[in-house]
Recover the amino acids of this structure.
């Protein structure tokens, strides 16, 4: 049996981890003979891939980046996401995206002019520049619109021109940089004032600037000047973007051809925001906390917000395509109590429930899934991975005095988990066990080939460890060896570790996440390892995880566009979505060994 995760049973093994792996590059965490920091190695590799116009070369770099990421053990993929939800059969025209967002601007609801839904609890933020959650993105996508937007074309969610009057004109320079000229449609903000190309200039510079400290600043890396803009905390450095004097043309220059550029243009962080509204409130993001200051330009505008209770959006009469918006109102209940949400759906209080009790899934499928127009149960494949995030700066594994040993422990813990049992008996949502972080369905630059067809150290598509049921015993044996290599004692006769420290597992309050955590807790307990569940409400949980105030946490990532880059650039040192804190704080001083990266 060919295994892609290699036990670090000695420091020598750590040094030789990728020897003979069949790729032209190698990486491992070293105790001695270190060469590069995570930032110097990983960040440089990602930056090179972003500016590489050669599809073959770019793909190779992205696969190498995933090798580096998986070697840390800090990212422990469990399964590929699916999106299960309940929706009344009277709702038509609604569509969702493999990215996890839900779109209501084409929807209708029988004779009613409103849709009532619950997609999550209180959002951390609905500021397009500061949001990094799927629920926040859903609110933003329905209340803001950019140069492009997502639409349902023949059953497929794709990006189409919105405020851009058709496709832009492009010019490619000798150095490979591409300049885009967008002609803007006439449009207005929800307060009736004119929206111009200057609004895009302000908004993109704001979101990309180090002064704003957006989690998503790195998503502008494809724009010329982004590196300087992100590094500048004064707000003086700007992207290579501009507006015509009459405000009807918006110009931007990318560092090279970007195959997924129109998807970025439809992404919430690329949406325009009104400067006077944003700057009317001194606190960062404060303008996006009240309907009185929350000026938008999309199909709906925020009209009421009872924090931790509900949000109401009404049709925006100034939306450029308002004539085709059927609904007058969107009512969102804010909750993460799956039992309550399911009860509201059953009683007709809401028309769409984005979550429900895990233990009720079988009965829900039997009751609500139909093969005709009366169907109310949906289960869509998502471009995302549910994973465990290990904070690389945690000191909980006290016996592991080197990063190589800590990586070994993290990998070992991940191998103890039976991903097939998890998806078949716990989550029950037709999820696919994950053997890599970049999920199935992610396309190469050609827009056709699945990136995972060549994942894993041997580029054979078998991933970084086996998820085959037949390999369960071998995985456990390897897991025990990995944890032993990290410095902990295993009592063979009793089948448990005798000195492994207990640790907290951070998660948000939701029955699905609690069920997964409880399963992992029970598995670890079989081997003498104590996991303590530490639950927090959604917004607090996001802030705690982002701040690195945890040892181990539940995590998940839905792609922002269909390309492996969206799963890999988030772990750059500068990324606000780098929950594992790779290359940050103490880990910034950890060196890695690289060869021909």
């Amino acid at each position: 049996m060919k295994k892609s995760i290699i036990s670090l049973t000695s420091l020598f093994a750590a040094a030789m981890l990728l020897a003979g792996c069949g790729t032209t590059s190698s990486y491992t965490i070293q105790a001695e003979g270190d060469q590069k920091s995570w930032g110097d190695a990983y960040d440089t590799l990602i930056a090179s891939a972003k500016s590489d116009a050669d599809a073959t070369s770019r793909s190779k770099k992205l696969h190498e980046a995933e090798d580096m990421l998986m070697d840390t053990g800090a990212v422990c993929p469990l399964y590929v996401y699916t999106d299960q939800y309940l929706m009344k059969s009277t709702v038509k025209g609604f569509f969702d995206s493999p990215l996890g967002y839900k779109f209501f601007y084409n929807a209708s609801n029988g004779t009613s002019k409103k849709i009532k839904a619950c997609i999550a609890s209180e959002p951390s933020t609905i500021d397009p520049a500061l949001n990094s959650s799927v629920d926040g993105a859903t609110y933003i996508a329905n209340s803001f619109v950019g140069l492009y937007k997502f639409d349902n074309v023949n059953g497929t969610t794709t990006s189409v021109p919105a405020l851009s009057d058709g496709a832009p004109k492009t010019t490619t320079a000798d150095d490979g940089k591409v300049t885009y000229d967008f002609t803007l449609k006439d449009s207005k903000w929800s307060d009736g004032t004119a929206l111009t190309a200057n609004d895009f200039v302000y908004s993109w510079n704001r979101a990309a600037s180090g002064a704003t400290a957006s989690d998503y600043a790195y998503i502008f890396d494809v724009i010329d000047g982004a590196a300087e803009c992100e590094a500048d905390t004064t707000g003086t450095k700007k992207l290579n973007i501009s507006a015509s004097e009459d405000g009807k043309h918006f110009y931007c220059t990318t560092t090279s051809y970007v195959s997924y550029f129109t998807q970025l243009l439809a992404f919430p962080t690329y949406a325009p925001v009104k400067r006077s509204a944003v700057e009317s409130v001194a606190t960062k993001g404060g303008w996006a906390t009240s309907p009185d200051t929350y000026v938008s330009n999309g199909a709906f505008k925020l009209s009421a917000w009872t924090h931790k209770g509900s949000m109401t959006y009404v049709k925006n009469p100034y939306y450029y395509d308002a004539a085709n918006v059927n609904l007058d109102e969107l009512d969102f209940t804010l909750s993460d109590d799956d039992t309550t949400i399911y009860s509201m759906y059953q009683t007709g209080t809401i028309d769409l429930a984005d979550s429900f009790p895990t233990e009720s899934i079988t009965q829900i499928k039997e009751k609500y899934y139909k093969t005709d127009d009366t169907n109310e149960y949906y289960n869509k494949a998502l471009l995302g991975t549910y994973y465990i995030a290990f904070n690389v700066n945690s000191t909980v594994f006290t016996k592991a005095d080197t990063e190589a040993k800590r990586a070994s422990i993290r990998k070992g813990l991940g191998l103890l988990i039976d991903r097939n049992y998890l998806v078949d008996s716990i989550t029950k949502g037709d999820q696919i066990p994950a053997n890599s972080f970049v999920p199935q369905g992610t396309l190469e630059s050609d827009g056709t080939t699945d990136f995972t067809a060549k994942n894993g150290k041997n580029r054979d598509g078998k991933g970084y460890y086996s998820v085959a049921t037949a390999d369960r015993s071998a995985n456990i044996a390897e897991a025990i060896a990995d944890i032993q290599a990290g410095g902990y004692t295993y009592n063979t006769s009793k089948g448990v570790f005798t000195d492994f420290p207990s640790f907290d597992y951070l998660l948000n309050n939701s029955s699905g996440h609690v069920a997964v955590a409880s399963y992992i807790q029970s598995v670890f307990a079989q081997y003498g390892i104590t996991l303590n569940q530490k639950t927090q409400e959604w917004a607090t949980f996001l802030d705690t995880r982002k701040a690195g105030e945890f040892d181990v946490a539940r995590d998940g990532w839905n792609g922002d566009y269909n390309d492996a880059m969206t799963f890999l650039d988030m772990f750059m040192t500068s990324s606000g979505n780098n929950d594992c804190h790779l290359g940050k704080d103490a880990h910034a001083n950890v060196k890695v060994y690289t060869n021909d990266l």
User: Anything to note?
Assistant: Residues 418 and 472 are 7 Å apart (CA to CA). The longest strand covers residues 377-390.
